[in-house]
Specification:
Elements: E1 6-10, H1 14-25, E2 29-33, H2 37-40, E3 49-50, H3 54-58, E4 63-66, H4 71-81, E5 90-93, H5 99-111, E6 115-118, E7 121-122, H6 125-129, E8 133-138, H7 144-154, E9 155-162, H8 169-198, H9 202-209, H10 217-227, H11 238-254, H12 260-277
Parallel strand pairs: 1-2, 1-4, 2-3, 4-5, 5-6, 8-9
Antiparallel strand pairs: 7-8
Helix pairs in contact: 4-5, 8-10, 8-11, 8-12, 11-12
């Protein structure tokens, strides 16, 4: 295996498209597929070949990378790709899925003789576009040489969590990290909503906590999106955040942990989406604190 690979990217949304671009810029031969072809077509300008079907995309691939909406979508697309998959092909599964789903996907990989890597990523649009994601990965040591050039092209570093992708170690770590991101996003939105209701200037709030342990860059960044109207294009959409929040709640239930904050956040994201903010940045959950005609 050389460092120049044929990589199939299945799913070219916010994250998948950025990853495909960085793979092409790193000199790999990229084949891209998306359910809505128009979302994949701009990648042709980067040298990617746009495929009409998952099977066409994976034919002859050294590595298949999946970045789709959820576990069921990944399973469906990989089954469509199956007729063209070669046994021994490395599968880098980067979609954020639940604990049950990663086990099912690993079983699917075994069914087709694929080498499975559980490899979700930390980061949103900007680090994805810059190739600065953190990859959380689990997979066999003797297969890592095949996927390292791919992981290096899309991420600034790779954190190996185990040697068996089927045990979901990387996915479990991703869910823990996302639980913190979602909690911080919810807290940011609620603090700003309360400041609006009480007539408090948000800047007074920032000044009060500035430089202390309660201050954080994430609070400032997400607040700016809300206050300055920068919610589009989304770095991480409300609808995707709702999906992830529900995966976190389900993981907690599986292991006997009640996660009230994550459950409430999932409901907030759902309300924001129902108000028309589903495609906006997850910070738009702020609007769930108000009736639709009171939010602006």
């Amino acid at each position: 295996m050389t460092d120049t690979l044929t990589v199939s990217v299945l799913g070219t949304g916010i994250m998948g498209a950025a990853m495909a671009r960085n793979l092409a810029r790193a000199g790999h031969s990229v084949r891209a597929w998306n359910r809505t072809r128009a979302k994949a077509e701009p990648l042709a300008e980067e040298g990617a070949r746009i495929a009409d079907t998952p099977a066409e995309a994976v034919e002859g691939a050294d590595v298949v990378l999946t970045m789709l909406h959820d576990g069921p979508a990944v399973a469906e697309v990989m089954r469509q790709a199956a007729p063209a998959l070669r046994p021994g092909t490395a599968w880098v599964q980067s979609t954020t899925v639940g604990v049950d789903a990663v086990e099912a996907l690993a079983a699917l990989a075994a069914e087709y003789g694929l080498v499975f890597f559980d490899a979700p990523v930390l980061g949103t649009r900007q680090p994805a576009e810059a190739g600065r994601l953190t990859v959380l990965a689990a997979g066999p040591t003797d297969g890592r040489t095949a996927v390292t050039p791919v992981l290096d092209a899309v991420g600034a570093r790779t954190v190996w969590t185990g040697e068996d992708g089927a045990d979901g170690a990387a996915t479990r770590l991703k869910l823990v990290a996302n639980s913190w991101v979602i909690a911080a996003t919810t807290a940011t939105g609620e603090a700003l909503a309360l400041s609006k209701a009480l007539g408090v200037n948000p800047q007074d709030f920032f000044d009060a906590i500035g430089g202390g342990p309660l201050d954080m860059g994430y609070l400032r960044a997400k607040s700016a999106l809300i206050l300055d109207g920068g919610l589009e294009p989304a770095s991480f959409a409300v609808t995707t955040a709702e999906k992830d929040a529900r995966l976190i709640v389900e993981a907690g239930q599986r292991y006997g942990v009640r996660l009230d904050g994550a459950a409430a956040s999932a409901d907030r994201f759902a309300r924001a989406a129902a108000q028309g903010h589903g495609h906006e940045d997850m910070a738009a959950a702020y609007f769930a604190s108000f009736e639709p005609d009171e939010s602006r």
